[in-house]
Design a protein that fits this description.
single chain, 389 residues, alpha+beta, Deoxyribonuclease I, Chain A, six-stranded mixed β-sheet, 10 helices, globular
Amino acid sequence: MRLAMRLILMSTLVAALAVGSPLLVPAPPADGTAAAAGSNPAMRANGSTVRHASAAGATTQVMVVSANVREGSRARRSRDLRDGDDLESFTRRVFARDAKVPDVVLLQEVRGSASAAVQVLNQHPSARRSSARYVVAVEPSRRPGDGRCDGPRKKRHEILRDSAIVVNSATVSKVHQSGVVRTWGNWFGEHGCAEQPWALITVRDGNAAPRLARVASAHIAPSRIMLKSRAIVRTAHALERQNRRTPSALLALGGDLNLTRCQGAPRTPETAGCRVRLAHRYLLDQGFVDAVRSRHLRGADGVVGVQRRIDFLYTTDQVRGSWFDRCYRAFDVAAYPCDPAEVRFANVKRIRRCQHQVTVVGRPGGKCSIDRGYPRYYSDHPIVRALLS
């Protein structure tokens, strides 16, 4: 039976790549008008030709951060957006470890709040000291739609892009192109079309040769493993096909893939030699590297022993360094216990209480907001970060 199900799933994934509907479309702004190359006019492309980075000399390294910030919840969106404590906590955590500030920030579950996140990022002392200036390259969007979309669908449905791409305009000199990959989505029982945004950018860092990079922020929304796998494969395949036009470009896919790497129940701890799910196997077979796992398999920063790891940063390039907020949800760590000083939430009930406070009340309050002088709650997902070259 298991073999039969695996064969059916594999055939479904292969069929997903043969679907005739468009995989890649230009990304319209949030108001649904014509596509733009970027929200910062100084960063828009002058023409259709994209110049590749020089192979001579040192090449710019690209710092990418990915996080599901759960901002602008559909349940109590206006109250959530009025509160800034969780975004401030997120920003402090982003700048807590590395000297190099992020060049790209991939956000998921941002529904109208990407600009708010940018404002908080720009106000942080680390951003000011480094002259970083963050802008939204691809905005989130929500609008009605019809026609074809991958997977189950109705004649009329919602088109939701609740992911955004934020770039540091001090190091990202140009946004050449942007677009989306469309996959099927399911939000609170509503079927629709999910848009996974991508952007082709040039990153510069001092005297190093500029680097062309294609980055994508994905939030995989379907409720069944087969449909999640289909959406992941469809997204990766579309990005690979697009990147054939710019073969020298770094390719990074980050986000909430909503699917663990290892087969088994979500609460099953990740192991070194587990059976890899088909969607993740597809990524590995296509040359993608799990940025965190490739650098931190075991130990205090490792993925082994972590339950329900569904936030990833995959790349086809070299990973110079990586980190994920492993002890933010310390109750998910079943091996290599966390240093108590690194623990943010040791109990699932506490993080759910904080999540409720942010969504319903509008402010975290109490230990959700401040503990030992450090703001704690920023989301129900941990941050992922990688330095790519």
